[in-house]
Amino acid sequence: QVQLAESGGGLVQPGGSLRLSCVASGVIFSMYTMAWYRQAPGKQRELVARISRAGSMNYVDSVKGRFTISRDNAKNTVYLQMNSLKPEDTAVYYCQADYLRVYWGQGTQITVSS
Q: Which helix (H) or strand (E) holds 78?
């Protein structure tokens, strides 16, 4: 059974940092493109960052230069390092695994507020 377990969410002040982790089980992790999405209240879910199995990365324009996605295939884990957080980054963040079919984590809340 495929499971994606996110962790690292929470409340942070503007300008602060957080690191999200997503551990995958039940998959051959190295075969998957991994991504982080987010969904703010009243908005559609949007792609934040994606890393291919070859290590190519892409980001939504609003997080470029602030967020970094990375993966550790030995640990079946994808990370999202988030720096210089802004209130508009507040959302539920979801991990996604994509290879032949798509799997989602349960989401973790990030709240950026003073």
A: strand 77-82
Would the CA dihedral through 102, 68, 23, 85 be positive or negative? negative
Q: What is the pLDDT of residues 15-73, one digit of tens each?
A: 999 999 999 999 899 999 999 999 999 999 999 999 999 999 999 999 999 999 999 99
What are φ and ψ of residue 32, in 5° steps? -95, 140
In this prediction, residue 73 carries a pLDDT of 97
State how far the alpha carbon of 37 is from the alpha carbons of 1, 50, 57, 106, 114, in Å: 22, 9, 14, 11, 24
- Extract the tokens encoding 37: 């999405």
Q: Which CA distances in Å does 60 have to 51, 68, 75, 85, 106?
A: 12, 11, 26, 15, 21
Euclidean distance between CA atoms 88 and 75, whole angstroms:
31
For residue 64 the two structure tokens come to 């470029």
What the block records as the tokens of 24 is 């995958």
